[in-house]
Amino acid sequence: YPISIFFIVINEFCERFSYYGMRAVLVLYFKYFLRWDDNVSTAIYHTFVALCYLTPILGALIADSWLGKFKTIISLSVVYTIGQAIISISSINDLTDYNRDGTPDHIPVHVALSIVGLILIALGTGGIKPCVAAFGGDQFEDHQEKQRTRFFSIFYLSINAGSLISTILTPILRGEECGIHSKQRCYPLAFGVPAALMAVAL
């Protein structure tokens, strides 16, 4: 097996953990931190998910006609990691809690950061989606059909393992209490761990 396969499988595990972990608590973040009602939370959530499934077209175009698979994965993973970091920062209650009463004083700051973070995440996750599996397949020679087949089995196992573990773990992290001035549900931890894993993936 080419040594690069190890990195591609670990990358995919971390990236899927990052995406599904962040998504697992996103509606709760909208409702209880940003204080949006059910309709707005649902609309923004589904718009974000739709954007994540639309941007692979952009990623494929960038990879095929401009940067190639590897540079597309690297550059959009940087965008993705920045987006995850921004949404983690946006969820820090004490960022705008000037009077230390336990609630943010300037929700629009948190909303703006969240929207920017989500757009960058959608560009990142969608942009690399059409490239990573194909890039993995490119690592094998023509005579390595058996190894290539096994790689795709392990690759899809890593996708599902990352998704499963993150969907269980991040709500638990959100349930912790954290904060400098007042204790709150720990959205920074729930978003921060996926952001850290995206940095590992990068």
From TrEMBL:
Membrane topology field? Multi-pass membrane protein
InterPro entries, per the entry: MFS_dom, MFS_trans_sf, POT_fam, PTR2_symporter_CS
The molecular function GO annotations come to: symporter activity
* Keyword list, A-Z: Membrane, Peptide transport, Protein transport, Symport, Transmembrane, Transmembrane helix, Transport
The superkingdom of the source organism is Eukaryota
Q: Describe the location of the Major facilitator superfamily (MFS) profile domain by residue ranges.
A: 1-202
* Intracellular or extracellular location(s): Membrane
Q: Which Pfam families match?
A: PTR2
User: Which GO CC annotations does the UniProt entry carry?
Assistant: membrane
Task: Look up the coiled coil feature and give its residue ranges.
Answer: none
Q: Which Gene3D superfamilies match?
A: MFS general substrate transporter like domains
* Similarity annotation: Belongs to the major facilitator superfamily. Proton-dependent oligopeptide transporter (POT/PTR) (TC 2.A.17) family.
Quote the protein name from its UniProt record. Answer: Solute carrier family 15 member 1
Q: What is the lineage of its organism?
A: Eukaryota, Metazoa, Chordata, Craniata, Vertebrata
